[in-house]
Amino acid sequence: MKFFNIIIILLLSTFLEAQVSPPGLGDTNSASWYAMGLRQDLNEDKTFESMTYIGVGLKSDEDNYNLISKPAIVVLNQEFYNELDKNWKVSYAISYRKQMDYSMDVVNMSENIATQQELRLYARMAYSTKIGKVKLTQTARQEVRKFMDQDWKNTDEPLQLRSRLKSQASISLDENDKHSLTAGAEVLFSTSKDNITKEWSDFKYQEARFTMFYTYRPQETPIAISVGYMNNLIEKNSTHSAHYASVDITWENPFHIF
Question: pTM of the predicted model, to two decimals?
Answer without folding.
Answer: 0.88
